[in-house]
Write a structure and sequence with these properties.
The chain has 13 helices and six strands. By secondary structure, the chain is of the alpha/beta class. It folds into two domains: about 230 residues, P-loop containing nucleotide triphosphate hydrolases (Rossmann fold), CATH 3.40.50.300; about 60 residues, Histone, subunit A. Strands 3-2-4-1-5-6 form a six-stranded parallel sheet, sandwiched between helices. It is globular and about 60 Å long.
Amino acid sequence: MITDKPVLIIIAGPTAVGKTTVSITIAKALKCEIISADARQFYKELQIGTAPPGKTELNDVPHHFIGTLSVRDTYNTGRFEKDVLKLLPELFKKSGFAVMVGGSGLYIHAVCHGIDLLPEPDTWLRNELNLLYKTRGIIALQERLKILDPEYFLKTDINNPVRLIRAIEVSMITGKPYSSFRKQKANERPFRTLKIGIDLPREELYERINTRVDEMIARGLVDEARSMLPFRSLNSLNTVGYKELFDHFDGKISMNEAISLIKRHSRNYAKRQLTWFRRDSWINWFHPDDIDGMRNFIRYQNE
């Protein structure tokens, strides 16, 4: 190997692109375990709408951070960073490798490079901002963030109310723009990272997304979403596939409209994921079927 440091292999990409199959194949070849970096798959109650690996896949290779939380639990990027860094030494003892797979770019970034310590949420302010969102919509949050932190406004997903509220909250509590807390220099890690990106031609990716949504509906997503109605106000349920069905249950849209919106919002989410990952020049991109190319890349980087 180039160094005696263990290696964390990142497998990133948009939803439905085939990351799970790739990660299991790579992990088997390296005789190592898998860490999920999909913030939506942490929750044990969301067994259909977040498309976690199935029982067979979980039995093939040990996975971590899948179905480990309840939707009632509070979890964030900082805790994920700490939990993964605590786990990695144990995983590295087995083969010198570990695979981390997912589409949550911020969580992957936290493990690879670290995040700044941010102030704890202010309950009163958080409630005020949630009320602002509920009464005046996401545009009100966008306008406030644009004033408080125009730099972060241009970089973040401005259609994600959770991120907008957190950025506004930090800016108001500290008197400093949220973007000023973001790392300029990566933290030193006791391991190397190799980053693999998985992508497909747009039309093929979108067709996979549409097919996956149809499969979720057939498997019982509607009933799963209905069982989550008592928890719909939680951040964990601010998720594509559930929000649209909640609107259907409220009588705002038909079932066909809900399914169509789930597909559209999933495609939009995939587009945002790709935008995030393509900013990282260290990611090496592959077609999901190019397993030999990925193996050769890993082998070459470790000779």
